[in-house]
Design brief:
Oligomer: single chain
Largest sheet: 5 strands, mixed, barrel
Strand content: 15-25%
Strand order of the largest sheet: 5-8-7-6-9
Shape: globular
Order of helices and strands: HEEEEHHEEHEHEHEHH
Radius of gyration: 17 Å
Number of helices: 8
Distance between the termini: 36 Å
């Protein structure tokens, strides 16, 4: 389904009716096992995705499926506790539908987080990567179909998808916290199966440092709409074939839980500096 602009307006109107005079400036999309940041929002107004017209539902494990509005690290935020994935059956337009709604309710900056498989063999599970660029090939674009000029141009530039200024801010924040922050390229695969060893080798050959099943469509739509984007990947496991062991969703969530403190400190410090 291709949503007309009026659908996005209806979604935004429902959210505005719940948030009163509050207007968020920054949106956060929280990935697998990382939804705890939404629980830290002060004076929260929580809206289940099911209450928002035309909003897709999140069904992936570890995704609460609600929008939380309030204050975090002194900033006015809209936090998505859980995202939608193409593997759940949603089109790429539907996966990224919430990003356009977040833009309409006032968000000019988007922070994307995800749990990812580590492709760079010099890194290890538990490392955090700020995304410098992404690779999304072989799959259609979330901008496919009629262009909605209310959001952006037909052919948007993607040469600086992940804001250089925000990446510099992330590195500064990590240094202040004494954290080692990696920087690299996120390579998108649709899932839900984990990538094969050959696909991980392909990602490495193409210049990828991490592989995952989210983030790329949302980033494309955000840039199209003129938002500044900052992306973080938490390395929750080594990519298939690097270690002689099977991959599992349980491992992903366990690593995310073990790293929640340093990850949340980094995101909160970045918020403070925005």
């Amino acid at each position: 389904m291709v949503h007309p602009f009026s659908h996005y307006q209806q979604s935004a109107d429902l959210i505005r009716s719940r948030m009163g005079d509050f207007t968020p400036d920054i949106a956060l999309v929280l990935g697998s096992g990382l939804g705890f940041l939404g629980d830290m929002v002060e004076q929260p107004v929580a809206i289940p995705y099911g209450d928002i017209p035309h909003f897709p539902r999140s069904t992936a494990p570890g995704h609460a499926g609600r929008l939380v509005l309030g204050t975090l690290a002194g900033k006015r935020v809209a936090v998505m506790q859980g995202r939608m994935h193409h593997y759940e059956g949603w089109s790429y337009e539907e996966v990224s539908y919430p990003v356009r709604v977040l833009k309409l309710i006032g968000c000019e900056t988007l922070i994307l987080t995800n749990a990812a498989g580590c492709v760079n063999t010099a890194w290890a599970p538990g490392d955090i990567m700020v995304i410098s660029d992404q690779i999304k090939i072989f799959m259609e674009s979330p901008l496919r179909g009629e262009n909605l000029a209310e959001f952006g141009p037909r052919f948007p530039d993607m040469s600086k998808m992940y804001s250089p200024a925000l990446r510099a801010l992330a590195h500064e924040s990590a240094r202040e916290l004494g954290l080692e922050l990696r920087e690299g390229v996120y390579c998108y695969f649709p899932g839900p199966q984990f990538e094969t060893p050959a696909e991980v080798r392909l990602a490495r050959t193409l210049g990828g440092d991490a592989v995952g099943m989210s983030t790329a469509p949302e980033a494309i739509v955000a840039v199209h709409a003129g938002m500044e984007v900052l992306g973080f990947s938490l390395m929750t496991n080594m990519g298939a074939g690097i270690l002689d062991q099977p991959l599992s969703g349980e491992e992903v969530n366990a690593t995310a839980e073990a790293c929640r403190e340093q990850f949340s400190h980094l995101v909160l410090r970045c918020l403070e500096k925005l």
